[in-house]
Amino acid sequence: MKGKVKWDFKVLTEKISPENIAVMAELIAMRETKTLIGFMGYHAEKAHKKLCMDIFCKDKLGYTLSDSYDLVQSVALFLCGHCGEYLDDFLYVSKKGKQITIKMECYLIITRMLSKRYRLMQKYQSLEATKEKGEISCMEESETEYQQEVKEDSLVDKMTAALNLTENMSVALDCRMSGMSYPEIAKRLSRAVSTVYEYFEKMRARYTAIYG
Question: Could you tell me which residues come within 8 angstroms of residue 90 by beta carbon, excluding any fewer than 6 positions away?
Fold first, then answer.
């Protein structure tokens, strides 16, 4: 029986295996959430802190994992399909001709998940906050509004899928809807600001062609 995989960033250079997938996923999620703090601010910082707490306390009796650990589980599930490969192995070429590795795809998974949550959180009013303000009569209304926002977010996903966006355009849209500026998006994608402007011009044109 193999020993427990050491929790060390060196594991990211090893071949992906059932034994090290969990550690790889945790390290990748922790690294990417920390990176996203510079782009999403408090939202990413909060997710990063909760994730670190989950990672270091998950084995304690009675500890309950936060929703931030979903990031780890999503990455781990993706890596399960790539056992025997390395994180830096080529995965696919994006529609813009960019070579995407397994590791890059893991980062994109985390970015998409945090961006989507951020959009919802911007619109959601906590029921606990409502109680503290003494606005008990508004509780049901707040819950209904949240459910409506979830439905609207699902509709947005369907509409963007119809636009047939490239990988970079999709990430740029998620980032923009998360409140990031064009320069911040450009930095995130390692592209010129003018290129990001071009992405959104193309998206607007496609949207107009489809939905009028």
Answer: 99, 100, 101
Residue 201 lies in domain = 138-212
Q: With 70 as the cut, is the pLDDT of residue 52 above it?
A: yes
Where is the domain boundary, 122, 152, 184?
Answer: 122
| Average of per-residue pLDDT across 110-133 | 61
Backbone angles phi, psi at 30, to 5 degrees: -65, -45
Q: Which helix (H) or strand (E) holds 199?
A: helix 193-211
Boundary of a domain, candidates 97, 122, 147: 122
Instruction: Give the dihedral sign, CA 174/180/182/183.
Output: negative
pLDDT in tens, 70-103: 999 999 999 999 999 999 999 888 776 778 899 9
Confidence of residue 13 (pLDDT cuts 50, 70, 90): very high
Burial class (CB in 10 A: 0-12, 13-18, 19+), 125: middle
| CATH number of residue 192's parent domain | 1.10.10
| CA-angle at 33, arms to 31 and 39, nearest 5° | 120
